[in-house]
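Project standup — Tuesday

K.O.: blocked on the structure for the chain from last sprint. Re-posting the sequence here as requested.
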Amino acid sequence: MSVSDKKVVEGFYKSDFSQNPDDINNFLHPDAELYWNSSAGFNKMNFQDIANLSKEIARSSESLRAEISHLLMDKDQVTIRFTYHIRTVENPDEEIPMAHFIAIWKIQDGKMLKGYQISQLADESPENLSSFLSTNF
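H.V.: unblocked you, prediction finished:
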């Protein structure tokens, strides 16, 4: 594993993949799998499922931005902690926190291959938001 593997994960979450479908191809391995535990339940997603979710996000949003608080690498895995902020089609002038995430990715051939992700709906608690602003990675 190299620092470039860490940059792959960071690059994906900082990219505009929800508005630019090519970014999915640039960062995700064709055999990508994502095991996602969310407040709505468990989902196992493959490359196409993730691409389809990206298209759904594009239809309902003006922008999606990840605010990254942690980006860690250990052996063959990269872990990222972040909050997604969204500007919806209905309210494009206001960016609101959507959800908090932690994801662990295995990288293969310079692309994200296998991910484990946990998410929870965001809140605007000052303690929660300030934890992101005060952390350097």
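K.O.: great, moving the ticket to review. The longest strand covers residues 61-74. The longest helix spans residues 47-60.
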